[in-house]
Amino acid sequence: MKLKALNVKCSECGSQYKAGEVASGLYGEFILRSSTASSEAYLDALNDNTYEEVFSLIKTNVKMEGKRPREIADVVRKTYGIIACDPDEEGSYFCIGKFPPCPVCGSQNIDCWEAIEPSEMVDKKIPHVTHRIWSSLSGVEKERVVDEVLSKF
Ligand SMILES: [Zn+2]
């Protein structure tokens, strides 16, 4: 798939490096990254019904009482990968909104990012996220997983 290159700045050591983002910029498309090396997975949230499923389980969880819709959407983005996606080969969870590690210090925290002009495209094979574990759970088990992840969040 085609990714658009961005310049990102590491918040730990200040190095600048390139990271790929979904080129179409369409709502609901994400590249998820794990906290190890460079595992990446692609999610098309509009065509993947687990996203909606997790969203409604989080929305109805008691821990979300009194939260604004925007806060809930933020919680969904940050926890979805842990709740419903299979971890990478090393057992590390995928997260929406994570950047590739800094080539200098390995941190995944960034200070800021900017689009490269004129835009630069990278063609990369990225596997789709999988939901083998999540799909094998019953409704009650899914509620429990959501509750556990929200408690640690
Ligand atoms: Zn760094």
Description:
This protein has helices at residues 49-59, 69-84, 132-135, 139-152; strands at residues 2-10, 16-22, 29-34, 40-44, 94-96, 110-115, 121-123. The protein is of the alpha+beta class and 153 residues long. The protein has one domain. Strands 1, 2, 6 and 7 form a four-stranded antiparallel β-sheet that branches. Helix 1 crosses helix 2 (69-84) and helix 2 crosses helix 4 (139-152). The longest helix has 16 residues, at 69-84. The mean pLDDT is 93. Zinc ion (ZN) binds next to loops.
Which properties best describe this structure?
29% helix; binds zinc ion; 4-stranded antiparallel sheet; 153 residues; alpha+beta
User: How many beta-strand segments?
Assistant: 7
Q: Which series of helices and strands comes N to C?
A: EEEEHHEEEHH
Report the major sheet: 4 strands, antiparallel
Question: What's the end-to-end separation, in Å?
Answer: 32 Å
Which spans of ≥5 residues are poorly predicted at pLDDT below 50?
none
Question: How large, in whole angstroms, is the Cα Rg?
Answer: 16 Å
**Helix content range of the residues, please?**
25-40%
Number of DSSP helical runs:
4
Structural class: alpha+beta
Which percent range describes the beta-strand content? 25-35%
- List bound small molecules: zinc ion
Shape: globular
Q: Work out the count of structural domains.
A: 1
Calculate the mean pLDDT score and round it. Answer: 93
